[in-house]
Specification:
With about 170 residues, this protein is α+β, with helices and mostly antiparallel strands. It is built from four helices and seven strands; from the N terminus they run E-H-H-E-E-E-H-E-H-E-E. It has a seven-stranded mixed beta sheet with strand order 1-2-3-4-5-7-6, with helices on both faces. The longest helix has 15 residues.
Length: about 170
């Protein structure tokens, strides 16, 4: 079982592990906003930006096994007055060598528990249609809304469909 922890702003000691994680998922076909081959410098810039934004409506969790980063997930809290009840799930990553052992479920569990604490009753996300990630969200009772064909490019540059999901999270006093 992995150790899941929320990351604080300035956790630069995780940067190398996060960069390696991102490169691994992209090089294994995950459509997460990057094309392959993903250079270390580009992955480094991405994670430096994420780490700088923590605490400004962005929350990050990492999964570690034996001190190695093997997964991550982000939650962007809506800061608009009419959206204080919702948040966007972003970038669920699990290293290719650590898949199938429940890490994505552990990360989603931590994220949903935090969302409840923050009184976020509606979570939304998008993912590649037909992907393993889509199966994971369905397993966690996310509701599929629809699909947009040719929405994004896969790491090899091929246009793929993206589907949208939501989940209503029951708050304690509801």
């Amino acid at each position: 079982m992995a150790i899941i922890r929320q990351v604080n702003q300035g956790s630069v000691q995780l940067l190398s592990g996060l960069v390696g994680l991102l490169q691994d998922v992209v090089h294994h076909g995950a459509s997460v906003g990057f094309l392959a081959p993903l250079e270390q410098a580009e992955a480094n810039r991405y994670w430096q930006g994420v780490l700088a934004d923590l605490g400004r409506g962005l929350v990050l969790w990492v999964a570690e096994q034996d001190g190695i980063v093997v997964g991550a997930i982000q939650l962007a809290l809506c800061g608009r007055a009419n959206g204080m009840h919702r948040a966007d799930v972003q970038k669920l990553f699990v290293h290719s060598l650590s898949r199938g052992i429940g890490i994505s479920s552990q990360l989603l569990y931590a994220l949903e528990a935090f969302a409840k604490q923050q009184r976020r009753s509606l979570l939304v996300l998008d993912t590649e249609a037909g992907s393993l990630a889509e199966k994971i969200y369905q397993h966690w009772n996310w509701q599929r809304v629809g699909e947009i064909p040719g929405y994004a490019a896969s790491p090899d540059g091929k246009l793929i469909s993206t589907c949208y999901y939501y989940k209503q999270v029951a708050l304690e006093d509801d």
